[in-house]
Specification:
By secondary structure, this protein is mostly helical. It is built from four helices and no strands. Helix 2 packs antiparallel against helix 3.
């Protein structure tokens, strides 16, 4: 996740977005926190923006430990 966040790619591969959204559901709070931070740094294409926003909002609603990161 940290490597993805620092990649600086102009276009984020779709698989990266899918995997990072999936990491928001992991048991480890540090992984969820890093996934949220990573999503904030990636360039999200318009057709995936709503999906990412929904995933982050759902995380914030269910997880007080990472609410500020989401």
């Amino acid at each position: 996740l940290r490597i993805m966040a620092r990649s600086g790619l102009e276009e984020t591969p779709g698989d990266w977005i899918t995997a990072t959204i999936g990491a928001l559901s992991r048991e480890d709070a540090d992984v969820r926190r890093q996934a949220a931070a990573t999503l904030h740094t990636l360039t999200i294409p318009d057709d995936r923006a709503a999906e990412v926003a929904t995933a982050l909002l759902e995380l914030a609603d269910r997880d007080d430990a990472v609410k500020l990161d989401a």
